[in-house]
Amino acid sequence: MADARILIVDDHPLFREALRHALSTAKSHLEISEADSLNSLTAKLADDDSCDLVLLDLRMPGVQGLSGLIYLRSQYPNIPVVIVSASEEAGIVQKSLDLGASGFIPKSSGTAVIIEAVETVLDGGVWTPPWAHREVPGDPEIAAIARRVASLTAQQIRVLMMLKEGLLNKQIAHALDVSEATVKAHVSAILLKLGVASRTQAVIAASKLAGASDI
Q1: Helix 140-150 vs helix 180-194: crossing angle, to nearest 10
Q2: What global pTM score does this model have?
Q3: Helix H segments across the chain?
Q4: Strand order in 53-56's β-sheet?
Q5: Which residues pair with 188 in a beta bridge?
Q6: Contact present, 101 and 57 (Cβ < 8 Å)
Q7: Which helix (H) or strand (E) covers residue 85, if one does?
Q8: pLDDT (tens digit, 0 to 9) for every residue of the chain, 215 residues total?
């Protein structure tokens, strides 16, 4: 029987294989599965959410910046999520933690570091690279926005992501297979929870979590 079940989420097969190989050297027996997109991830978790850890890339199909993390923390709050990213910006690490990540592993990390990070999180801790602590702790405004965004339901987060893409209510309704009235209700709830007055302000507020080009 496995000591822990880990789900690797990355759209690059070579990196998934490299990460799987690194984890195979851990002292613990880890059962590893893979997903190559947010849709693939949610489908796997919908079938079986008995996962002990998700290792999540920031950039892949269906994921814009930290939106994948926001979605997971809302939909599956009991599953720890560790970001595994090519980014080595302390600000992104802090924003990830603000949004509920249990750790941040740079893709440049060696096997020993990856094992240390994973085992730390599986033991209930939080792991970040040493250089991530050289900058000033997170901006209070960002932390406040993170708390508001984290209060959204999974469906509301999906709607928010689609608003960022510039989709109209009719297009969102078609993509989610719901009525336009349902989409309007979600948008109203999003505005209320984020404390803003318009769709544009909602997108701007959420975008501050990961920079103008993300979420």
Answers
A1: 150
A2: 0.78
A3: 13-23, 38-47, 67-75, 90-98, 111-122, 140-150, 154-164, 169-176, 180-194, 199-207
A4: 30-35, 4-9, 53-56, 81-85, 103-106
A5: none
A6: no
A7: strand 81-85
A8: 568 999 999 999 999 999 999 999 988 889 999 999 888 888 899 888 889 999 999 877 666 678 788 888 877 889 999 999 988 888 888 888 878 899 999 999 999 999 999 999 999 999 999 887 655 555 677 778 877 887 888 788 889 888 988 899 999 999 899 999 999 999 999 999 999 999 999 988 877 765 534 44
User: What is the three-class DSSP state of 3?
Assistant: coil
* CB 6, CB 51: distance < 8 Å: yes
Question: Which residue is it, tokens 């999003």?
Answer: 190
Gap between the terminal Cα atoms of the chain: 38
CA distance 185 to 187: 5
CA distance 27 to 44: 26
**Taking the mean position of all CA atoms in its chain, how far away is CA 117?**
17
Residue 24 to residues 53, 88, 115: CA-CA distances in angstroms? 15, 25, 9
Q: Tell me the C-alpha to C-alpha distance, in Å, between residue 165 and each of 88, 158, 169, 193.
A: 26, 11, 12, 20
